[in-house]
Amino acid sequence: MDAARAATRDERRPGLVALLGSGETAAAGGRIFESLAQALPRPLRVVVLETPAGFELNSDRVAGRVAEFLRVRLANYGADVIQAAALRRDGPRSTGDPLVTEPLLHADLIFAGPGSPTYAVRHLAGSLAWQRALARHALGAALALASAATIAAGRWALPVYEIYKAGHDPFWSDGLDLLGPFGLSLAIVPHWNNNDGGTELDTSRCFMGRERFEAMAAGLPAGTAIVGLDEHTGLVINLAAGNAAVRGAGGVTLRRDGSEHSFAAGATFALELLGPFRLVDGLSALPPAIVAEALAAEAADASTAAEPAPPAEVAALAQAREAARERRDWTAADELRDRIAALGWQVQDTPQGPELLPWKDKP
Predict the structure, then answer these.
(1) How far apart are CA 228 and CA 345, in angstroms?
(2) Is 186 in contact with 227 (CB distance < 8 Å)?
């Protein structure tokens, strides 16, 4: 049985949280996803939540592009990637539908990304989908958020479409407040260093421009921390360790109560810089029914996590394949992989070496 799936409640800690400034399907994003996967059970169960783009007619493709990227990028971790098509609070494919959101109860890694921040908040806040995602995170699943979902995760959300596209006067909207229970009141701003406007238009600060954003920042309540994420850059938050690490091509800018700090890729800082951080049990803030079903799902997953041992013939073929790879005989290695597959097994090449797993779909 996978030790990570069999952990006791006393051993569990909240999962990692990755906030991406952009580039979730670029090289920098791929490296961040891999860093999350390295600390998670295998085979890795990934859920891509469609909600932030649920208003778009092609939301399945918006989320699907990320799902396809993760299937390839995390193949060595045995990634099983599912799209959860929870589009909106009401109607079919609802964020309150138990069947649509059921995959979240079993996820090791949950991703939400492009779309509209305010739409995401409107249709996720207090929903079954969001509560199940929070429960899984409290039990150790990683959350990876990009673009609209990154903005929506803060205590205060930047209404990008309303201001930049529809011409509304600047304002802040309520967010999902993902890290509020941990003592952190955040306004998360991706695309911090965007320059799509060139020399004619300042599109930094998530398309707000410096001048307009400074006026908006002045209106945030005292104690709010602004987290500015450069493009192709991520901030990986380790709540259990009380720190955050900057990953990717750019940097992260932190502002709080008149102080500003800038961190380049590779830097790590204590979460106390963002506010009065405290480590809490995330389950304690959730409804008892959500907690009960999340614990039941975790127990069921742990009981079925043990994979059957491969037969001696399959193990021997795997050893022969590894020897062929070491002598760089790729033709022989591919033939041996095919023979292993014909016997109902697959080889997953991981950083720790090859692993043999049964084909789930093989009759």
Answers:
(1) 46
(2) yes
